[in-house]
Amino acid sequence: MEKLIALLIAAPLLGAAVLLVGGRRLDRVGHWIGTLLSTASFVIGLLLFADLLGKNAEHRTLIQHLWTWIPVEGFQADVTFRLDQLSMTFVLLITGVGSLIHLYSVGYMEHDERRRRFFGYLNLFLAAMLLLVLADNYLLLYVGWEGVGLASYLLIGFWQHKPSAATAAKKAFLVNRVGDMGLSIAIMLMFTTFGSFAFGPVFGHVDGASQGKLTAIGLMLLLAACGKSAQVPLQSWLGDAMEGPTPVSALIHAATMVTAGVYLIVRSAAVFNAAPDAQLVVTVVGTVTLLFGAIVGCAKDDIKKALAGSTMSQIGYMVLAAGLGPIGYVFAIMHLVTHGFFKAGLFLGAGSVMHGMNDEVDMRKFGGLRKYMPVTFITFGLGYLAIIGFPGLSGFFSKDKIIEAAFAKGGTEGWILGGAALVGAAITAFYMTRVMLMTFFGEKRWQPDAEGHEPHPHESPAVMTIPMIVLAVGSVLGGAFFSIGDRFLKWLEPVTGHSEGHSPVSAGEVTIATMVCLVIGVGIAWAQYGRKPVPALAPRGSLLTRAARRDLLQDDFNHVVLVRGGEHLTRSLVYLDHSLVDGVVNGTAAGFGGLSGRLRRLQNGFARSYAVSMFGGAALLVAATLLMRAV
Amino acid sequence: MSFPLLTATAALPALGAVATAAVPAARRTAAKWLALLISLGTLALAITVLVRFDPGGARYQLTESHTWIRDFGVRYELGVDGIGVALIALTAVLIPFIILAGWHDADPLETGNRRWRPTQGFFALILAVEAMVLISFEATDVFLFYIFFEAMLIPMYFLIGGFGDRAHAQGEEAAATQRSYAAVKFLLYNLVGGLIMLAAVIGLYVVAGNFSLQQIAEARASGSLHMATSTERWLFLGFFFAFAVKAPLWPLHTWLPNAMQESTAPVAVLITAVVDKVGTFAMLRFCLGLFPEASRWATPVILVLALISIVYGALLAVGQRDIKRLVAYASISHFGFIILGIFAMTSQGQSGATLYMVNHGISTAALMLVAGFLISRRGSRLIADYGGVQKVAPVLAGTFLIGGLATLSLPGLAPFVSEFLVLVGTFTRYPVIGIIATLGIVLAALYTLVLYQRTMTGPVKPEVSTMPDLRVREVLVVAPLIVLLIFLGVYPKPVTNIVNPAVKHTMSDVQKKDPKPEVEAVK
Amino acid sequence: MNPVNYLYLAGLLFTIGATGVLIRRNAIVVFMCIELMLNACNLAFVTFSRLHGNLDGQVIAFFTMVVAAAEVVVGLAIIVSLFRTRHSASVDDASLMKL
Description:
The complex is a heterotrimer.
Chain A: H1 5-22, H2 30-53, E1 62-72, E2 75-83, H3 85-108, H4 115-134, H5 138-156, H6 163-194, H7 199-204, H8 211-228, H9 236-240, H10 246-255, H11 260-267, H12 269-273, H13 276-299, H14 303-323, H15 329-356, H16 374-388, H17 394-408, H18 411-440, H19 462-483, H20 487-496, H21 507-530, H22 543-549, H23 554-602, H24 607-630
Antiparallel strand pairs in A: 1-2
Helix pairs in contact in A: 1-2, 1-4, 2-3, 2-4, 3-4, 3-10, 3-15, 3-19, 4-5, 5-6, 5-10, 6-8, 8-11, 8-13, 10-15, 11-14, 13-14, 13-18, 13-22, 14-15, 14-17, 14-18, 15-16, 15-17, 15-19, 15-20, 16-18, 16-19, 17-18, 17-19, 17-21, 18-21
Chain B: H1 5-22, H2 28-52, E1 61-69, E2 74-80, H3 82-101, H4 118-138, H5 142-151, H6 153-162, H7 172-208, H8 213-222, H9 229-246, H10 255-262, H11 265-290, H12 292-318, H13 323-343, H14 347-378, H15 389-392, H16 394-407, H17 414-429, H18 431-456, H19 472-490, H20 493-509
Antiparallel strand pairs in B: 1-2
Helix pairs in contact in B: 1-2, 1-4, 2-3, 2-4, 3-4, 3-11, 3-14, 3-19, 3-20, 4-5, 4-6, 4-11, 5-7, 6-7, 7-9, 7-10, 9-11, 9-12, 10-11, 10-13, 11-12, 11-13, 11-14, 12-13, 12-18, 13-14, 13-17, 13-18, 14-16, 14-17, 14-19, 14-20, 16-18, 16-19, 17-18, 17-19
Chain C: H1 4-23, H2 27-52, H3 56-86
Helix pairs in contact in C: 1-2, 2-3
């Protein structure tokens, strides 16, 4: 069975190659080729899943060794795939949601002349993402890691003629590269510590390594995760990444790629378990981000950026859970999967709204759309209920567990983390209700655009609504399906390990507290956006609101310190290179030039002055000879 | 006596150069085809070398040895180790693409000029450079190496000074002035380096009594030749200076941006991808091979200079407005990586450095040649003159992006393997330097993506709106290079297999062992 | 007479010749002074020959005379052609290595 693993990756990779190299001949069928190959990958995934289910829980790891990649004295990297419960979960999520979004894109990108290329990039993304989760060593994982970064770059900047899209793409790649630096340093540290960076040898020998090295590896892995998963302080790219087509935001910047950081941390559980200091930092990063993203999400009027803030915040929950150690790993992944469903659904809903509204993204220009787009409204609404944690829906199960686990951390830390997670839940309820109300309720607020075209909101075609419906079903049932009988826990436990903590508050109390937070959040949002009409122009807002609109000034900080500073640095270096380094050399040359100019004057052409120098020279020689003889 | 394969490999392009130069003025196209055929023939010979070379065999293979100047102990000695084979293959692979890419670079300005001879000269000079580079990779006699190391400057001087980009913003006369400035700068820098090396070569003769790499190494190993520590260090510095100019290492780098900026793209590729590699190659073969103690002594300083090259080159690349200058500074950054890998004195570092030489050759060729196609279409080297090319010439933009991604060492493409090996090799011995060098990967992304963004994306500029996409000849140049980049990125084993044993020898030359990991997880 | 006196005379003649070469501008005079220097050398050679009791110096003196004669031929020809083009025999006028 393990022979099939490579096919998982090969199918979309083939699609990418065919679509990108094939040229215009494939324009008419390209999107179907892409969708077909992505679905093929999903089917192979299902086959493998069935195979794994048929095995004993202890033997659910398939290894496929393809070839030795980099063989150098003392350094060996292999192209080896590992399919275990963790990667299987991801494979199904990636190919499943990925195929749905391929299908959705067929409709969404219908009028784009470069649709074939879009599907080529999407296929490339799938291949890279699958490589990321299937790799059996960190270096191969790194290939997938950067591969998804490349696909993300290409897709964010898909509408390259827009300078903002091109800039956003570049920014995403660069910020991610900072994270990648972390990953490569982590790999180098592993190599110096263990002489290997393959999962087996590293995880098997954690006990022998020094605490300092392990903490360093953990922190570097966290840096990598921060870059890819848009965690503070490397979160600034995610909002801008919304410049990409909406299916991309749904697939890459909500459901799959941005969760790669969580995968990395959970995959490296053995390292983090042995490095409590690094774990603490992970929880802090997660907590800060979950609040940061939530606050940013409250202030955005752009529906996609509001959702992006929410994504950041939800991944913050996952990172927090992953940082809690064996108590949290399973729930981090569970929340990741359910989030994959409802957030992809929400984004597709947002895309559907934009599709019907001439690509308008400003929620202040929506309003009352529930009448015009019933399917979108219902699916979006279900996703909304799922994300705020409405009892019975999937977000309820997964988020609740994380909050519980946070309290179970114990001590003051437990209270702080758990408290922050609860506050986050309240804010989530607030901003999601805000999005819901501003978009689908109230009076219609749209106006004709500059050219006098009035938007005619309409429901999207079936090719787009079907994926939304499927995802909505997943958002509703996923959590319950996973949680009943602890199915998900039992499935993942052999890989990640699990321990029950002793929580100072009981599960029931946590649920009640969460519900209270939810009601408070929804209530405030209702009071502000439901009861009174939404102004078409954004009010000035408080200081916090204004800061949140600017992503809490993170970009301004980056701009002033990094961009400006960098510009000054490079400019002065260019100047120095010219004037100093080159100047020294040119100065030497000029010096020799001047010297030879002087010497040239001796050659004046007057025979008698030559004669003088001849006599002088002869006299000198004679004098020197005499002098030597005398001495 | 067996067939002198190495001599033949270098002699074929040398003879080809003469033959190409002798083609009558009016038969310009015939001269081009002749040059291309000769370079393909050389490629065939180089492949034969590759096949005949046995990685598990003796250190130097396919050796040839004849007395040349008996009185001074100069011998005509050739032989290749794995590192030499890899670089010979690189050179032989790149030259046909360089010739093909420069197909029209030396055509007469007005058509029908029947007495125009520079076309023949252009291709003859390229072949001459190839011959000299090849023999530099093959020579195991220091004097023989030195002669061709220096002689290379002559054809390069004419290639830089004689042939430039066609349309030039400031007019042909200003362009000619800048070209000759660049050519003279190139010549002087390398000549000064060469002269200092000459002094060291003579010094070596005085100490050792002959020029043979193998004899000297054997004599040193057996103890029959003793070099005083200070002598060894001075000689090392003499050799290293020349190689550091050629490589180029900060702060001896400023000739490269000028030379690459002013010459045509194929010649720029010839400089950075082929000729400069002789410098880094010679560091491995001569500096480490002849003066191991001095190499270890100089390591800290060289590592710091290499590190400065990496960061400084990348930062300057970010600040450039000229496409070719940008690539030149990027190359300086990459040469920093190569030198870092060589002097980190670990197996991974040195294998990585050798691999880096090969991969950098291919990736720079891909990027620079596409940049050359771009420049020839618009007649400007300034980044600001472009914008939105992606829309009008998607294939050109796509290949440019792949070249750029190779330059920023995207995993999956060949340069990643070598860059990572160099970083790992450095990190195991010098963690701090390794970490700072990692900054280079962020900066590389910055300058590449800024270049791509400014030239290829955004609204289409009116001047580029009629730009044609890549032609068949141009696709033939770029496509194989891209295939090579992907192939060697996924499966670098063919190269590492021949390089590894040679690196083992070099490591034993300098008497260094790889640091052991903290926990031995793999036996 | 003490042969060393001839050496003094040779030195004197050489000095006169050298001074003439340095301070006179007329090419003919410069030329004559050069001849004077050559002959001073000849005198010294012959004297040394006498002092050392062998013939080497005398042989060289003959050589010098032959060379001097050849030089006179070439030199005078140059001076004459210079005079023809410039109507002057001043050496300072001929400072450019071209006519």
